[in-house]
Amino acid sequence: MQGSIRIIPLFFVTFFFTDIHKISAQQPKKLKTIIVDAGHGGNDAGACGQYENSLRSKEKDVTLAIAMKLVAELKKQLPGLNTIPTRTTDIYQSPNEKAVIANQNKGDLFICIHADSGPLNTGRRLTGTRTVTRYKVTYTGKGKKKKKKSTPYTVEEPVYEYYKMPLTRSGTSVWIFAAHKTSDKLKAIMDQEGQTEAEYEIEAGADSSYNAFDFNTPEGRTIAQIYAKRYQEKSDRLATLVNEEVEKTGRPSLGVSQRQKGIWVLQATNMPAILVETGFINNPEDERYLNSEEGQQELAESITKAVIKYKSQIENPVNNQTSK
Ligand SMILES: [Zn+2]
User: Using CA atoms, how far apart are residues 235 and 272, in angstroms rounded to an integer?
Assistant: First the structure.
C-alpha cells in the first residue's frame, strides 16, 4: 500500500503544475474542519452483542457514545478547529446523508466511528436426557397375510442447549478507501467542485488570472485523480497515527487496511477519510471496553492525539519527512 499510491508521475506534476497551483485553495494545507461520524443510528442498529451472556449492546449506541467523547476531546484540545458531528442523537442517516453533511460543511477530515463484528460459531452443551418412546416395526406372515407389528420401547436421549460462542478476535483496526475505488473518490471530488464552482469564482474575485476550474475536462480529471491520491495519502497517514496511538494503550491494534469491498461513505466524501473499527462487539472484553466510560474516553483520546500529530505533520512539511 505504501509504494504506489505515493507516486505521482512527474510529468503530470510538471504538466499541470500551473493548474494545480491555480486551484491549490481547494485542497487547503490547514486543518480547519473535522467531521466526526457516529456510524449507523436509528433503525440501523449495526452489529449487536449476540453471544451468550453478552451485554446485548448495539453498535449504533457505542459509536454515538465514542463519537460524542471524541467531539468533546477534539474541541477541548483543538479549540481553534471546527468539529462537527454528523449526528448527536439516535437517528437514522443514509450514507449519502452523512457524506452530504461532511461535504457541505467543507470538512478537511472525515472520521467514522464503527464497531466490528464477525460470524459467531454455535456451541452446544448437554443439559440432560429425556425418555422417548420409539417403535420397532416387524412383519409377520407372507403375501396377503403379511401383518405389520409395532412394538414400543423407550430410550434415553441427550438434550442439548445451543448457544452463540463469543468471538475470539479483538482489537481496533483502521480503514481507508481502497486504491481501486479511487474513481469513486474522484467522482465525489468532481461533484463537489462542480457544486461550489461559483463560490470559488467569487472568492477568486480580483485575481483575473483565475478561471473557475472545470473538472469535467480530461485535464480536470487528471487533477482530480491527483487530488484523490493525495487524499488517500493523507487518509493513510492519519490511519497509521490512530493505529499507533491505539497500540500505546496496550489494546490489540490490527493495523491499517484498505477495504476491498469499499466503504461507500469514505469514497463519497471530498476529503481525507478514515473509518475506525473501535473493537469487536461480539468479543466479551471488547464489548465491555466499548461500553465503558473509560474505554470510550481512551479511544477518544487516542484518536485526538493522532489528529493533533496529523495536523502538525500536514501543516509543517518538515515534520512530514520524519514520519512514516
Ligand atoms: Zn458499522
Answer: 5
Q: How many A from CA of 301 to the centre of ligand 1?
A: 20
Cell of 165: 460462542
Q: How many C-beta neighbours within 10 Å does residue 28 have?
A: 13
- Residue 211 CB contacts under 8 Å (≥ 6 apart), including other chains: 22
- Average predicted confidence (pLDDT) for the chain: 82
CA 37 – CA 268 distance, rounded (Å)? 13
CATH superfamily of 2-116+173-322: Zn-dependent exopeptidases (3.40.630.40)
Q: How far is the CA of 48 from the centre of ligand 1 (A)?
A: 10
Nearest to 191 by CA among 253, 268, 278, 102: 268
Distance from C-alpha of 185 to C-alpha of 193, rounded to nearest angstrom: 12
| 290 has a pLDDT exceeding 90 | yes
Look at residue 319 and tell me whether its pLDDT is greater than 60.
no
